[in-house]
Amino acid sequence: MLAAVLAGGVDCAAAQAPARADAVVAAPRPAIAFGAAWYPEQWPESRWETDLQLMQQAGFDTVRIAEFAWSTMEPSEGHFEFAWLDRAIAAASRHSIRVVLGTPTAAPPVWMGERHPDILRVDEDGTRASHGARRHFSYASHRYRAYARRIVREMARRYGHDRRVVGWQLDNEIGPPSFDAEARARWHGFLAGRFGTIAALNRAWSTAYWSQAYQRFDQVPLHASGPQNPGLLLEARHFQTALWREYLMDQAAVLRTATDPAQFITTNTMFWNDGFDHYAVHEGLDLAAWDDYIQDPEPDWVANGANHDLVWGYKQKNFWLMETQAGRVDWVGVNRALRPGQVREMGWQAVMHGADAVLYWQFRPAPNGQETNYGTLLSPDGQPAPVYGEIARLGAEFARAGAALADTTPEARVAMLWSYDSRWAIDLQRMHRDYDPVAEFTDFYRPLRQLSGGVAVLPARADLEAFPLVVAPNLNVLSEEDANHLAAYVRGGGHLVLGPRTGQKDPYDALWPDRQPGPLRATLGASVEQYYVLDGHVALDGLAPADGPPASAWRWAEALVPEAGDVQVLARYRDPGGWLDGRAAVVTRPVGRGHITYVAAWLEPAAMRELARTLMARSGLALVATADAPGLEIGVRGAPGRRTLVAINHADSALPLALPPGASLLLGSLDGGRMAPHDVVLATLPPEATP
Ligand code: GLA
């Protein structure tokens, strides 16, 4: 049948016959859920069976539906229409396709804003949103939340114990804050709760500066950007985090009382979105889910992998890839499609990094609307688009590898620490226009991932004991609590590596009255005497590979001063006539049973790579066999007694892949020990083997 479909025609007779009358019970849980966003409300019902048949033939077992269907579910206030959704869920189930239900609150219907304009979002400049796009609601509005609870309650009553519904997605890509009157009033209440007295706020933000001193909380403006006090702007992010968390928990509370606990509750987030602290927002959810879109026509696979690892860290467990592209996106300057094979690579990469589901956005384009040009599995005529075959192949592979991958999680020997407060604090006062904290983090991540074959991205407060090496590239905001936790990790035997700008700021974004790394200065036994913003490169002695050009720092360099007798200098700046000349750039020190290292500069890639090698060696970690093949990405998913290696050749040429003794091929092939370009290989690994 698949061949017939690809040859150019849907077999409509077969497609319209109900798949199996007995399939109305829930389909079994697949190891890797596979599917797409489906919008039955956009199509005549007569087309559903054909579309579902095509999904089933692509290996789909899951659809996400209804996340923008509020106007179809509640066409007028208090009047609910679910019969169509009942039929859509039943139709999907007849094709053994399970359902994730989206709560539709990212797109309120027109009657609501017309009757109550106060539910509409207000921009920072005071403009109120109008109907016709999405995310035009205010997350602070009590009225809006009441409407949201009501539709969620109606959905939960109807589907909360339906075994064909496996989970709930709250809203869709939450993000834009609102600056309406209710939001501002809540901001003032938030500040009162956080600071207690206005004097405490004035102290924390140093408001004597520029005559900012406030007399009452209700005088404090609400801003997310602009020339405001960075302490205020950081607190505004905390406020946004609190409101988004509350907004989601408001819906989750309704679901928790009216649904079967077997149905998970999640929300889908975006990229390195910095609108709120994702660790805090995910606390009350069952699992994390995100939407992975590659904007650059030449995918940076390492950076994309870092994003997966970031999302894994939100709950420190496997996540869902709730949306990903079936070819191209429609919102960058040049929306080039991924090349043949790259959609498959993207799917396998997600699984390697811990996705337990891969869903495409979207199955087919709506006939009209803002996103008709997006990459999809079907063309506008309802026939499979060229990428359909590649996606169907991936589905067949997921099914084959399912038993090996079921209930496994990605292995990592290195952890990296990420902090939203630090990202915001650096972004608010970059000092160098190119000091993008995500880019700096990714520069540290790149060689560590390549050399170690697995990196866990975690918040600073996470349990770190299992990791011989923990790298924190930019913990600019460092609380005493986190510093104590990290120092305990070091004393217990770990190797903690701190990057530039560490420990400069307290939790209010004020300067610690100490040298960097602030509350970790005593543990490090060294401190930063001064930092320098670089407009070029500064050479470094001590980090160059034997056969390469000298290592160098760029964008940022700090001069370190050893203070304890047992501090060892691993690299020094060579900056004739400059402030940095001869000063220490990397220092390390044994503490308790472990070590602490400080890297005082943003290193260019070759030096970063050399540094990563040094750090791995000093932490007793062996390099993976693919360490010197940058186009080859590997990762291991394991469970007690089972380990599966996933290898992806992202390059345009064949690359060698040496499997460790005792490994056996599960999927794909090795031709003379080489992986074909853009190919994928899975192999079972013996316990303890380094891949
Ligand atoms: C996001 C949204 C989808 C769709 C895609 C297209 O991920 O969640 O509704 O708009 O973007 O990029």
Explain the overall architecture.
- By secondary structure, this protein is α/β, with parallel strands linked by helices.
- Helices cover 31% and strands 21% of the residues.
- It contains 19 helices and 26 strands.
- The protein has a ten-stranded mixed beta sheet with strand order 12-11-13-14-19-18-17-15-16-20, with helices on both faces. The chain has a nine-stranded parallel beta sheet with strand order 5-4-3-2-1-9-8-7-6. It has a five-stranded antiparallel beta sheet with strand order 10-21-22-26-24, covered by helices on one side.
- Helix 13 links the parallel strand 8 and strand 9.
- Helix 7 runs parallel beside helix 10, helix 13 packs parallel to helix 14 and helix 16 packs across helix 19.
- The chain is globular, with a radius of gyration of 27 Å.
- The two termini are 39 Å apart.
- 50% of the residues are buried.
- The N terminus is likely disordered.
- It binds alpha-D-galactopyranose.
- The site of alpha-D-galactopyranose (GLA) has 9 residues, from loops.
Provide tags for this entry.
691 residues; ten-stranded mixed beta sheet; nine-stranded parallel beta sheet; 26 strands; 21% strand; disordered N terminus
Uncertain spans: 1-24
Q: How would the global form be characterised?
A: globular
Report on the biggest sheet: 10 strands, mixed
What's the helical proportion of residues? 25-40%
The count of DSSP E runs of length 2 or more, i.e. the number of strands, is 26
**Rg, please?**
27 Å
Rounded to the nearest angstrom, the distance between the terminal CA atoms is: 39 Å
What order do the strands of the largest sheet run in, or round the barrel if closed?
Answer: 12-11-13-14-19-18-17-15-16-20
Number of helices: 19
Global structural class: alpha/beta
- Heteromolecules bound: alpha-D-galactopyranose
Mean pLDDT: 94
Report strand %. 15-25%
